[in-house]
Design a protein that fits this description.
The chain is of the alpha+beta class. It has 2 helices and 11 strands. The strands form 3 sheets. It has a 5-stranded antiparallel beta sheet, with no helix packed on it. Strands 1-9-8-11 form a 4-stranded mixed beta sheet. A two-stranded parallel ribbon has the order 3-4.
């Protein structure tokens, strides 16, 4: 291969990479991306008694907020109805302190990790490195900004893992979709 052909090949390669970067940066915040890489299996859920709620468990109802006795207690619940919590861990591979969310939350900066371990008492906003969606029906959507702004990423039902570099220590709000 001569020098001219090599230069053309490099120009095409770098031009393609630059275009890919522009396309990725140009995505609207509503375009959900992958938030996880592979990781070990998380701790088993705690089986909740009865159903997740005596009222509507739809995504819209769960994003209205609220407080349940089993929310924000650090226990990852899955209820007999199949609805469950989104659990976030302070460290990768489901280690460190944990926080659980049954309802959507516009601002994770006012929540703290509650279970014993590294990070206990630290705020959840911008401090989560791994996650698991214990809900078997709804997708948890996390955002890098408060009030559902910034880059969005989906955690499908009953999946999770270590956050990618985009979301690691950079999640500030969540909702159910």
């Amino acid at each position: 291969m001569n020098r001219t052909a090599m230069r053309r090949g490099l120009a095409v390669t770098f031009g393609g990479l630059a275009l890919a970067g522009v396309v990725a940066v140009g995505q609207p915040a509503s375009a959900a991306t992958s938030v996880n890489t592979t990781g070990p299996r998380p701790p088993a859920p705690v089986a909740g008694v009865g159903t997740a709620s005596t009222t509507d468990s739809s995504a819209a109802a769960r994003n209205q907020g609220g407080v349940r006795g089993a929310e924000l207690d650090g226990v990852c619940n899955t209820y007999s109805s199949g609805y469950g919590d989104l659990c976030l861990w302070y460290l990768q591979n489901y280690t460190g302190s944990r926080a659980d969310f049954y309802f959507g939350d516009r601002n994770l900066n006012d929540n703290t990790f509650v279970t014993p371990g590294a990070g206990q008492g630290a705020r959840v906003g911008n401090n989560s490195e791994s996650d698991w969606n214990y809900d078997r029906h709804l997708t948890a959507r996390v955002y890098t900004g408060v009030n559902y702004t910034g880059v969005a990423g989906d955690i499908p039902p009953y999946t999770g893992g270590n956050f990618t570099s985009t979301f690691r220590n950079n999640v500030e709000s969540l909702k159910w979709v």
